[in-house]
Amino acid sequence: MVQIDTDYVGDLRCKAEHGPSGVTLTTDAPEDNHGEGRSFSPTDLVATALGTCIATILGIQADKHGLDLEGIEISVEKEMASTPRRITSLQADVTMPVALDESTRTRMERAARHCPVDESIHPDIDVRIDFHWPDGAPAS
């Protein structure tokens, strides 16, 4: 179990502390929802969680199979609805740094699409994960 402690510090900002490490982060309401957008919003953290979870799962798979995939780049675009205010979609674009054979690509993509964050997101949220592989010979 992991505990996250959150304090409302005023002016629509919160400070959250990760219990095991003591690392903190600050959130702010976005400009389109009464805030100033000075930091990640809570829903931005959902998009961040998806991108970093995909990268972590790909890193675990790379380690298991002796691959060097440092340099994976992931961009997640979040779309919001206003009534009710909620995330409607998350589009993750995963740019892989090296070409891999078809079997390894399939294994990596399957693992990414079943990362714990993706598995935890409500099914009403449209989550798309697209991979972009370089042209060329697969890495050995």
What does this structure look like?
It is built from three helices and six strands, in the order βββαββααβ. With 140 residues, it is an alpha+beta fold. The chain is 28% helix and 33% strand.
Spatial arrangement of strands, main beta sheet:
1-2-3
Order of helices and strands: EEEHEEHHE
| DSSP E strands, number | 6
Using only CA atoms, what is the Rg?
A: 17 Å
Q: What number is the mean pLDDT?
A: 94
Low-confidence stretches: none
Distance between the termini: 38 Å
Strand content: 25-35%
Strand-pairing-aware structural class? alpha+beta
User: What does the main sheet amount to?
Assistant: 3 strands, antiparallel
Morphology: globular
Helix content: 25-40%
Short description:
By secondary structure, the protein is α+β, with helices and mostly antiparallel strands.
List keywords for this structure.
140 residues, alpha+beta, three-stranded antiparallel sheet, three-stranded mixed sheet
Topology diagram in text:
Layout: E1 4-10, E2 13-18, E3 24-28, H1 42-64, E4 73-82, E5 85-95, H2 102-112, H3 116-120, E6 126-132
Parallel strand pairs: 5-6
Antiparallel strand pairs: 1-2, 2-3, 4-5
Helix pairs in contact: 1-2
